[in-house]
Amino acid sequence: MTGTLPTSDELWKLLNQDPEHFEKPGQENDKETLIWYYDCWLTAVVGKVYWGEKYRHYKLETDKVPMGKDKKERSLCSAADVAFGLLTYDNCRDRWIAMFELKKRDPGKSICDPV
Fold first, then answer.
1. What are the residues facing 72 on neighbouring strands?
2. Are the C-beta atoms of residues 68 and 74 closer than 8 Å to each other?
3. What is the C-alpha separation between 109 and 36, in angstroms, rounded?
4. Nearest-CA neighbor of 5 among 104, 90, 112?
5. SS3 label, residue 26
């Protein structure tokens, strides 16, 4: 990523690309954005228990693994998880950008401080 959050349309487009797209010359930014999505964003949405380093580097998000006390097989990341994550991303992106800009301008200021 070049320092800015992609739009939800840009993110959705990347998620629908063939894997070969990311290996073509000139697609380094797309690849970096996709890695950010899987390593940072999806981990935040689903949680480290389900999509932490123990699984995300070795499994697909649709794989099922034994989890919990009952060791029942559960999907690492459901379609509903992805949909919720994209919905949250779409609804909150502008606010996050404003928060990042505020922190950049005034590192000691909290967004909860009165204006």
1. 67
2. yes
3. 27
4. 90
5. coil
Q: Is 6 exposed, middle or buried (0-12, 13-18, 19+ CB in 10 A)?
A: buried
In degrees, to the nearest 5, what angle opens at C-alpha 81 toward C-alphas 76 and 83?
140
Residues 45-57 have pLDDT tens digits of 998 888 888 898 8
SS3 assignment, position 74: strand
Neighbour count for residue 50 (Cβ, 10 Å) = 21
Record the pTM. Answer: 0.78
pLDDT in tens, 75-105: 899 889 999 999 999 999 998 888 888 888 8
Domain boundaries, the chain: 8-92
